[in-house]
What we know:
With 671 residues, the chain is α+β, with helices and mostly antiparallel strands. The protein has helices spanning 2-13, 26-41, 45-53, 61-68, 73-83, 92-100, 108-122, 125-140, 145-154, 158-171, 176-188, 192-205, 210-222, 226-239, 246-256, 260-272, 277-285, 320-372, 383-389, 391-394, 400-437, 449-496, 499-518, and strands at 555-558, 562-566, 571-575, 595-602, 615-624, 627-633, 645-646, 651-657.
Amino acid sequence: MILALSFQVLAQSKPKPKAKEAPPTQKEMEEMMKEAQKQMDELDPEAKKMMDSMGFKMPDMKAIQKNVSGISDAQLKEAYENGNRIVPQKDAVRINTALAVTVITAQMSVYVNKTQQAVLAKLSPATKTKGAEIYQQVKRLNKSAANTAAGLWMDGKPTLALYIMGEACKADPANVIFLNNYASFLTMCGAEQVALPILNNLNKRYPKNSTILNNITQAWLGLGDITRANSYADSTIRIYAFHPQANMAKCLIEESKGNTPAAIAAAKKSIKKAFSTEKENKLKQLGYSLKSDDINWDRPMAQDALGLGKFNWPEYPIDVEQSKLLAKEWKDFINECEEKITELTIKQRSLEEAYLAANTFRNKQLLSAAQKGYYVQPIPGYAAKALVKLGPTVNDINGNMSFVFAEEAERVSKALASIADYEDILNRKQNTIDKRYQVQIGEGKSNPLDAICKDENAIRTEFLTGANGTIKTAYLSYFKYTRRRSSDLLYYYQYTLWPEQFELVKVNAQIAWLTQIKDQQVQFKDKSAWCNSVPKTKKPGQLQNFDDVHCDYVSTMNLGVYKITSSCSNLIGEFDFGGVKINVNDNVETGRYSGSAMVGTSKGFDGPAGTEVEASIAALVEWDNSGITDVGAIVGVDAKAGDVTIAGADVKVTMMTGVSTSGKVILQDMK
């Protein structure tokens, strides 16, 4: 722990060395810590005060220097190398321990009880007290203790999860899903040698099960036995080609061999159907930028989310007979649009206030989390995945959309500019008519009013046909583009913005659309003054309503006291212990470690579920240190990602061990 803290301090004062660089010596450590102390001493007092108020405590450099002073260069080198390892160093002692123990089914209860006693010895008194309280409450509520443990693990409370899962196994040591999950927790907390005898027993009873095989893979990887880990990873992937965790294990193994292309290929298979930012970052580290096609996404994009295509406005007049009548219709249409815009503007202000209030609350949560050392989701659950998958459709990286928009806007501008040309032509023809008939108008003259009426109407109709025809064609093309663009943006924002902000974006889009369609520069020309006909009246049409844009992909997985809700913008887990509260002090080792789980209701299976198991409803849940990152369908079962509701007493949660190493210290050196 001292060495880890030392390297953390060094990272603040000096960029992390590249893997090929030599580790720092004791002398270099002292110099760098002195430099770090100097930088802290030079901080402005106000800055120090502000940082302290925000919960950022300055490290005690003197205490660190004292702790590090007795560490040799050899120890520093070992700590540095361990911190930069791609795969764990081979642990011969623990490997031999794992190989020496075989647990038969009849002895499983004894083994679980012994293991749980060893686990309890590693847990803090606060964790054991709170764990016992939760366990008893879950039993009173007649809920599943095992599912509660799974929820606690997904929510970043590993020690509470360990406690309750162990108690669930003690109560029902014949339940193979409970045993699988307990072994998974043991592995992720650093007791791989204890988990393997359980997993080996399950593997003999349920061979060729992708979940069990993956969990064995991760246990051997944690012990540094790369040969065995690689063999089991291959077996897992043969059954489930896109296994999210086995492929990540394969990625690390190939990277450790220097086979970067193979490592990238494995990581891409891992992230294909179970996204996480950790996987994306690993691919970046390997030199690969994730592309939209690398991500599975089975939620069709709406063609016209707001229903803009159903909006109708009055016709463009193409002759003088229509002009006066349509001028009245356009006036009414514009007034109606403006009334609706006024109504939406009032709603817009209200939504702005709601968004600001929600944003302020969220910022306070983030600040409080930073001060107290726990995690709060900083962005909507699907935002990171949507940025990769949907970003290219709206972010215009290559400039194509900007080009199309400019082209469509230019077409409208040219059409509007052409009105002046049509006006010039009209004026010249009007002058010709005036000259032709001026000598025929007056008292005692022929006064051919019908002829003048006809000729003037003809040139005005010609103007309307040409000018409005050109404008209408340009506007229709422009509006077709803006409808598609608006729908794409709304779909993207539905996954990347918080609900309050998305509601505001929707209203902004509605106001923008109404403003554009009412501001069309339609041309009107009255009949010749020499004509006496009166236009017919027409009942004005009614302005259409916008379609509501709501998330059609809302799913819930109710595990009893823990419920996972997946929607377009939110992907969250929530507890309801019926009055029992959990805070960060109840679980000192709070943290999230990568993993997956299959959550489903089965048609009757005995063992932990892999994709080979027939199930009526099933969903794959993925999480990393940022929380739950994805919910998707399991291949080969009757489930559609994003539209799954799983609830009831028969819900089962099967844990798939991830490749995280940050939790290993919890059960370090457990016998």
